[in-house]
Amino acid sequence: MTAGAVLPIFVALPLIVSAITALSPSKKLNDALSILIPAINLAGGIWLYAYTSTHGTIGHVIGKYQGGVGISFGGDQFSAVMLVATMIVAITANWFAIAVGETQARYFTSLTLVLVTGVTGALLTADLFNFFVMIEVMLLPSYGLIAMTGTRHRLLSARTFVLVNLAASTLLLVGVGYIYGVAGAVNIGALRGAAAGNGPITVATGLVIIAVAAKAGVFPVHTWLPRTYPSTSAAVMGLFSGLHTKVAVYMLFRIWVVIFDMDERWNTLIIVIMVISMLIGGFAGLAEDTMRRVLAYQMVNGMPFILVMLAFTAGGGEAARYALAAGLLYTVHHMITVGALVLNVGAIEETYGTGTISKLAGIARRDPLTSAVFVAGAFSIVGFPPFSGIFGKVTIMLAAAQPGDWRSWVVITTIIVASFGALLSMMRVWKEVFWGRPMQNYPEALNVRWRFMLPSASMMLLSLAMFIGAGQMWDASTTAVDSLLNVDAYSTAVLGTDPVGVPNVAELQGGN
Asked: Looking at the domain assignment, is residue 501 inside a domain?
């Protein structure tokens, strides 16, 4: 058995175990499996990173069909880093769900494991249609999770979530169908460079990008995210924040590098959209009335910080490598930090029964650990040391500064202004919720329990470790980006040496 044959196991394992947990009456077994299965995939991601660093990108076609015919999987260091980061978030969110008793719901564990199945498959698939399938595998349990957990507004939010994602999925499927119609293939490796010089393929792939961007919560299709995620439970919002949007980031990076060949003609459009998205995400949280809605806009704010890096990859080479590595580093930081903040706020909600800003005050005196974790997360999200956000922001600004033209000035200025907006949002929450007079309507003995706090505190310790080990994190990011940029190795791995039905990209471009 080749190493590539392991890749489908990453997807099959959580799917099989989800069926076991659906049938099992044992809560203890289900709780253990909700942690164990993502932990196994986490270990597998570490193995994948180490193996591909030595042997290069690996691939596998289900059933050993020839490349271009069967369902292809591909794994490199880029997908390995994303797999490790998403599994860390999944483990921590499930840990919090166990701590607060959310896994009492009969099918909670089963649904989260199906979600993990879809995430893993989306990160390892080498086929756009299979990516659509894995997105649907992610969404089906998400519909259940968003409807069965959270506030009394969850059903209204679930309706919005379903409608938006169904529309985006329909557009995604139409785009994939058009790509097959004009190119004759949907294998990512077979489409290398296809959208860089062919109008129909560019339009078809553009539909896919719009659909994926909608799922990432990027302007102008962002408003659904802060209106739906906070209506779920904190554990589910933590899962969604680290999994749904970041899978979209992964595929946008892959499509941009492989299919668009980093076509610089789209750089201005990318910058305009991302600049607007930064400003909206940075300041819109100031108008929200609950802590988790404020954090939801920090999710909206984080996506353009990552995706604007695509506009600084023109010409490839060292500039592209630096920009993509900065985007990847910020992605991992954002997953850890936002996840920690959401679970921290969730611990407050579980204790005091509300996350409404106007109903809380003086928590810094009652719960110093809870307050310390929030401050640490706020420092990290804004970009203050000693947490991972400082290096994420600095590397992004350095990458944006490389061209030294109007793009650099616009993006760097917007990053500073949007970060100031995020600071104001975090300061408002601190002032209203953590500072001020002690609350009179709660007994003095009521405090956030340690078991509620440990998941978020662990995430912030990881953010601190990322700050201390910034050099190692940067090395891992640049190495992962090198594998992303090595399109020849990726195409060879996912197509094999004798692929079938692979379009001649030169003819497609020549026919434009």
From this structure: no
Q: Is the peptide bond before 368 cis (omega within 30 degrees of 0)?
A: no
The phi, psi pair for 445, rounded to 5°, reads -75, -10
Task: Count the Cβ atoms, other than its own, within 10 Å of residue 360.
Answer: 21
Pair 491, 412: CB distance under 8 Å: no
For the chain, percent of residues with pLDDT exceeding 70? 96
**CB-CB contact of 440 with 446 (8 Å):** no
DSSP at 438: P
Q: What pTM, to 2 d.p., does this model score?
A: 0.93
CB-based contact 281:418 (threshold 8 Å): yes
- Same domain assignment for residues 58 and 123: yes
Instruction: Give the model's pLDDT for residue 361.
Output: 87
Alpha-carbon span 151 to 146, nearest angstrom: 10
Domain containing 290 equals 266-488
Q: How many domains does the chain have?
A: 2
Same domain, 271 and 235: no
Considering the domain architecture, whether residues 270 and 368 belong to the same structural domain is answered as yes
- What is the band of 153 on the pLDDT scale with cuts at 50, 70, 90? low
Bond from prior residue into 220 cis (ω within 30 degrees of 0): yes
At CA 207, angle to CA 201 and CA 209, rounded to 5? Answer: 100
Q: Which residue has the higher pLDDT, 446 or 180?
A: 180
